[in-house]
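ugh ok fine here u go
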Amino acid sequence: GNWEFDVQSQKITWSDEVFRLFERDPSKGPPGYDENMACYYPEDSERLQKQVQAAIEKGVTTEDDYHVKLPSGKSVWHHGKIFIKKDKKGKVSKLLGTVQDITDRKALEDKLQKSEARYRSVVEDQTELIARFLIDGTLTWVNEFAAQYTGQTPQELVGRSFLDFLSPEEQKMARKSIAEITVENPVVE
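structure:
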């Protein structure tokens, strides 16, 4: 959806989609500024108010995600953009914006973060050397135990080849094993 705010007249205009996104009856018209800000969770309302003020006073455009409380009691996420329009004197005369429901995306991001946290806690707590590496042996991630085992930090290991830690004979065997990895055969010992 899209909206427009006339700085001089303080008039707000909403598209039908914005009314739908905020579960507001279009016959009531758009809410006033304070009523609109009350739709957002406090920390997001404060941030949005600062962004609106910066847009009006400094001509700053903004793009951000906001947590919204709907009249039905549902909690959703909206992605909003604020653009400015200046008058002939170069002063901000209007704010223009868009709103998009990103609730599903936020839910997926949250699931991914939780999954990543679980994964990290599992591999970080292991007493085995665990690492991710590129096909050439370059380490892209190592667990804390692998770093301790080598006497280095994870940051010192990432970017280096794990093959450097092997004897020439072990390097040859490791290269052969890596060459055998395919989509059909993703695991080698």
